Amino acid sequence: MIAQALADGLLTGAIYALGAIGLTLTMGILRFANFAHAEMMTWGAYMALGVLTVFSLESAPLGPLTFGWPLIGATVIAVFLTIALALIIDRLVFSRLRGRVGHLTLVFASFGVALIVRNLISLIFGGEATYYTNELQMAIELAPGLRVMPDQVFMFCLSLVLVAVVHLFLQKTRLGLAMRAVSENPVLSEINGISLARIVQWTWIIGGALAAIAGVLYGVSVQLRPEFGFQLLLPLFAAAILGGVGNVIGAVIGGFLIGTIESVSVLMIPAGYKVAIPFLVLLFVLYFRPTGLFSGTSGGK
């Protein structure tokens, strides 16, 4: 039982980790908590569904997976559509407020944006739960009492690859180093010739891309509902704060920890109370270590 719970927690944590990366970058570089980030995950998931629907593509299985190349291609398009949404939101809302109002006003603005995006999705796609595919899948027995779905293995491996790519990007590229510098000290970075506007733009691009992929992966693992982003908001914030605001590796570790703690908690408490676990973890972290497990905002430490 415990082995299965740990495995399920790590698989869920992989999706949390992808979502938390974009959130922690926003919090570290743009200096505000973006409540609309989880809704961009929902937007990305539904954009992939929209592409499949518009082009009448059936997500035929690829090997043991329940999905295939149509969904993979739709996800690529969804990434660009989610990046476009993120840039449009920044242009119409946040760029007009940045530097003119306090951080709390930006937080309230992001909450309003989240409501607009969620209701727009409900208006376009309806409020009913839906799926990418109706294909059934057999679990793989890795060990006695430990079973995983092929989809879950694929999502876990893809998440690890994307985390590694983002880490190397922040550590080895000039743009990544510039983003880390802005995260540490935006004023000093601008004095040294770094374009803050360019860094802000790339923050939204990276965050939007990862949000779209995480949304599609979550939709594959469960089902699509317009409110699933809202339900993921607390685990994402808990992961980002647990790992240390602005720290990408910390957010990844935080995502895995939140997913694991959630999953293991079901062995001790009724499943209906699982949604409260991220909130309790968040309170615990804020009380005992408000800077997170990996304090600092380098994004790669």
What can you see in these coordinates?
With 301 residues, the protein is mainly α. The chain has a single domain, classed as ABC transporter involved in vitamin B12 uptake, BtuC (Orthogonal Bundle). It has 11 helices and 2 strands. It has helices spanning 2-30, 37-54, 69-97, 103-125, 150-172, 174-184, 186-191, 196-221, 228-243, 248-265, 277-288, and strands at residues 140-143, 146-148. Strands 1-2 form a two-stranded antiparallel sheet. Strand 1 and strand 2 (146-148) form a beta hairpin. The protein is globular and about 60 Å long.
Q: What percent of the residues sit in helical stretches (DSSP H or I)?
A: over 70%
Order of helices and strands: HHHHEEHHHHHHH
Radius of gyration: 19 Å
Structural class of the helix and strand makeup?
mainly alpha
Structural key phrases:
301 residues; mainly alpha; ABC transporter involved in vitamin B12 uptake, BtuC; 11 helices; 70% helix; globular; disordered C terminus
Task: Write a brief structural summary.
The chain is mostly helical and 301 residues long. The chain has helices spanning 2-30, 37-54, 69-97, 103-125, 150-172, 174-184, 186-191, 196-221, 228-243, 248-265, 277-288, and strands spanning 140-143, 146-148. The chain has a two-stranded antiparallel sheet with strand order 1-2.
